[in-house]
Structure formats: C-alpha cells, structure tokens
Amino acid sequence: MSEFWPILDIEYIDAYPWVIIPPRAGPSAPFEEWDDIQTWCHDRAQDLWADRELDPGPNGVDFVGTTLASCAEALSPLGSEHWLFLHLDHPTDMPLPVCASIGPAAGPREETLRALTLADDPEAVEPPVVKPFKSERLGKGMTTFRYIQQDDSPRLLACVRYAWQVEEHGADVVMWTATDDVARLMTAGDDLEELGRSLAIWVP
User: Fold this and answer.
1) Is the model's pTM score more than 0.85?
2) Residues 6+ positions from 130 with CB-CB distance below 8 Å
3) In a 3-state reduction of DSSP, which class is residue 83?
4) What digits encode the pLDDT tens for the residues 57-89?
5) Where in the chain are the domains?
6) DSSP conformation letters of 24-53
7) Which end of the chain, N or C, is more open, meaning fewer C-beta atoms within 10 Å of its C-beta?
8) Coil, helix or strand for 7?
9) SS3 of 34, please?
10) What burial class does residue 90 get, using C-beta atoms within 10 Å of its C-beta: 0-12 exposed, 13-18 middle, 19+ buried?
11) Residue 98, SS3?
C-alpha cells in the first residue's frame, strides 16, 4: 500500500459513456476480491446494454465483457494504483482508455504541471498545445494536446494530458489518454473535460 494517504476520488459524473475500473491495489482499491476483474467487467457489460436499452443478443454481454476485461488487464494489471476509465458511446465500441493517478507534490507548481502534462515533450511532432484548465474540486491546472510518432505504426498518436497540484493536500494529480483515432478523441472531448472536473481528493 502506498504511504501517501490522500486518495483520488470521483465525485458525481455521468456514467453513461464510461466504464470505471477502480485501482486494483492501494488505498483506493474497493475490496479484497477486486482481483476478479473478469466478473467486474462482465457486470459492467450488462450495465452498458441495460443503460442504453439495447438488446445484446445471445453473445453481446460476453463479447463486451471480454473486451473490457482485456483493456483492464492490459492497462490496469493487478497491483496498479491508478484509476482506469473506458469511454464507449456504444457497448460494442473499442474503448478509449483514460487513466488518472495521484502522488505527493513533486516540486514547484508550474514546473511540475508542465512536467506532468509533457508540455515540453521533445518527442512531440510539433509544439504541444498548452492551456489552463480549472476544476472546482482540484483548482487551477493545465492541459496539453500533442502528437507523437509511433514505433510500430505510421499513424500519429494523439495525446491529451491534464494535471493539477493541490497545495492543501501536497498532492499532484494527473489524467491522461492517447489514441491514433483523432476523430474519436475529438468526439470524446467534452466527456474528457467532465471527467477531469469530477476528480477530487478524499482524505480518510
């Protein structure tokens, strides 16, 4: 378990486009049985179909549950302490993964936010777009958008990162996603901002 005691929490958020995978280790992990990721994702798949009032057919729940579990195992393996959010407009969409984590404040605010958002990434194809981003719960933060080359594909990877430093708790918070489907990222833009504004810190 991490020695850092403030916990990243999720305040109210419209769960419709999201499947939420809590941390699989550390103080934010919801319960000891959390290693049964297959059952969790199967249950979330049922919710996706039911919330959208769609008929999954004979194999829809198992198909979506397997897809969600594969994403969880790849991006949030057992022992991970970050949150994973999978964005889906339709149950059969390929999920857009978004991660969020918390840690002790690492240094001066502006310098830290630029580092966490990779605002000066030398690997970026062009200078990243850097903007302020304010959250009611976490305060003034920063967001960046940048393109980077992929080693195994000619398609550029579009990357979005958000970061905050919360002086009250001596904490840094970062949220990030990346995909080579730029149109998908643009479509999910409003939901990403809503997710960022839903993040909060809870002190047990």
Assistant:
1) yes
2) 114, 117, 119, 142, 143, 144
3) strand
4) 999 999 999 999 999 999 988 888 899 999 998
5) 7-202
6) SSSTT---GGGG-HHHHHHHHHHHHHHHTT
7) C
8) strand
9) helix
10) exposed
11) strand
